[in-house]
Every structure is written in structure tokens, then in C-alpha cells.
Amino acid sequence: MPANKQNMNSPHSDNDTDKWLEQLSSATHSPKGDFSAEKSYSMLQQRLKPARRKQNLFSIQQVRTAVAGLLVLVGLGWAFHPYLHPVRTLTASTRTQTRCVRLPDGSEVTLNRHSRLNYPESFGKERIVELNGEAYFEVSKNPQKPFRVKANGVTVSVLGTHFNVNAYAADSLVETTLLEGSVSVCNNANGEQKILKPNETAIYRKTTGTLSIHAMKDAQKEITWREGILDFEDAPMEEIARELSHHFNVDIQIADKQLRNYKLNAHFHQDETLTDILDMLAPIGRFTYHATKNNTIELKRTN
């Protein structure tokens, strides 16, 4: 009997199982035998307990392995999601009117005439937009997500501030003017950076690849275009012609160097036409103008 008890507590083998099945069969078919059906079933159940426990333990391990594998797949899915499903890029553009655009982070952008802004439908770790033209930015503060404006050769980086970027593709200059806060302007060609303070302008010259800072008396005059006003203070005729070109979507050319550098003060409203403005400027700057092909206007100095 002790030997049988010892066998019942040890893991069963195939031979042991066959023996117990034979005993069970004998007991259930012969009431006179040493084993009854009830006792045989109880003994068989005890014999098989270690195997069932082992099977249950193995099943739990399988479940844990499967869950771990699923979590890995989910993690990889999230990691590769931006590559498999890239964020949609939105475009805001203007023609003869200015336009206000609200970005996904709550930042507000006012686009000047004939300008274009590309931005993602939702921001990720960084907030990056691309500008071709002129825009005034009021950026929502978020130190964890820097805000960057890529604009024809320069990158303007901020955390939260108010600034204006003038970056038309056809211009030889890209100007960034700071009104409030602090911005960093980077020359994409060589990595040079300039930190602006309020009432300062960073000027990037495409022809030479140089980046410089210029102080201003009142940076607010740089954004009067939002109200449809063109305001020039001691501005060279070359700059005035450039602003008029953007405002009216024409190409104004000045061949004479002396006329390009001629400075004057001027203030124009949005209801004035290009002809009205040139007629007022011509006697002051001593020049004439005429239209040529391809939507071009040439200014020539008179003697």
C-alpha cells in the first residue's frame, strides 16, 4: 500500500496511465473486483492532477507570451504609424486679399497678399511651417514644442512670440522683424544664427548668402499691411517698388541705381490703385514709368 501511495504522488508516465485505465475498466465491468467504479474514477482523477496542473501552467505561459508579443506589435505600430500614415499637409494661400489662418496649436498667422503657407494637419514633436510670401505670426507658447518657420533660405525658431516674415521667392531679401519676445534666425546655407530683440530685423541676402541685423524705430510699421496700409519711412525706392510688386502682383523694375537708392516717406491706403500711387511718386522721385510685356512695369529716372 505505501508503494501505491508513492506512485500516486509522482508524475504519471504512459505505462502508468495504461495500467490505471485497465484497472478502471476491470472495476467498472466486474462488481466483484477489488476496485469499484467510484474508487477507480477517484484514483484516476488523482493520478492525472499533476499533468493537468502542468498543462494549465503551460497555457498561462503561452498567454503571457502572446500578450507580450501583441504589446510589441502595438508599440511597433505606433512607432511606424507616422511613416505608414503621414500627416496631411494643408495649404493656405492668398491673392488680392489678406487672410487669417489658425494653426492646430492655436497660433494665428495673417498672410499678406499673394502668399502661401504650408502646415501639417496636426503637429508632432515640433511645429514646422513653410512660408512663401509675407506673414505675421502670433505663436502660442509651448517650450516642449519649438515653432519653426522655413522661408526661402532661413529658418526662424521661436517658443512663443510675435514676428513678421517677408520671404517672397522672387525677392533677393528675406526679412524677419521681431515685435515681441525673442526669435532665432538661422542661415540654412551655413548654420549661422542671429538672435533678435524687439524692434530688430534680420535680413538674409540671397545673392551673397549673408545674414545681418538692423535696428528699427518702430516695428509696428512693418505690419500695417494687415490693415491694407503701405507705410514707408525713409525707405529707398527699391524697397517701395518691391512692396508695391507684392501688393499688386506685378514685377516693377528699376534700372537706374541712383533711383533705386532714392529715399522718401510715403503712406498709401488699400483703396488706392497702382496707377494712383505711381502718379504720386513719379514727380517726387523724378521718374517715369511704363508697362511692358509679361506684367512688368519699368521705372526710369528723368534728367
What are the key terms here?
13-stranded mixed β-sheet, Jelly Rolls, 3-stranded mixed β-sheet, Phage tail protein beta-alpha-beta fold, alpha+beta, single chain, 303 residues
Describe this structure in words.
- The longest helix is centred in the N-terminal third of the chain and has 48 residues, at 37-84.
- With 303 residues, this protein is an alpha+beta fold.
- The protein has helices at 2-8, 14-29, 37-84, 237-248, 257-260, 274-285; strands spanning 89-93, 99-102, 108-111, 116-120, 127-138, 147-151, 154-158, 162-167, 173-180, 183-187, 193-196, 200-205, 210-215, 230-236, 251-254, 263-268, 287-292, 296-301.
- Strands 1, 2, 3, 4, 5, 6, 7, 8, 9, 10, 11, 12 and 13 form a 13-stranded mixed beta sheet that branches.
- The chain contains six helices and 18 strands.
- The protein has three domains: 2-84, no CATH class; 87-224, Jelly Rolls; 229-303, Phage tail protein beta-alpha-beta fold (3-Layer(bab) Sandwich).
- Mean pLDDT is 82; it is low at 1-11 and 27-35.
- Helix 2 (14-29) crosses helix 3 (37-84).
- Strand 6 (147-151) and strand 7 form a beta hairpin.
Summarize the structure.
The chain has 303 residues and is α+β, with helices and mostly antiparallel strands. It has helices at residues 2-8, 14-29, 37-84, 237-248, 257-260, 274-285, and strands at residues 89-93, 99-102, 108-111, 116-120, 127-138, 147-151, 154-158, 162-167, 173-180, 183-187, 193-196, 200-205, 210-215, 230-236, 251-254, 263-268, 287-292, 296-301.
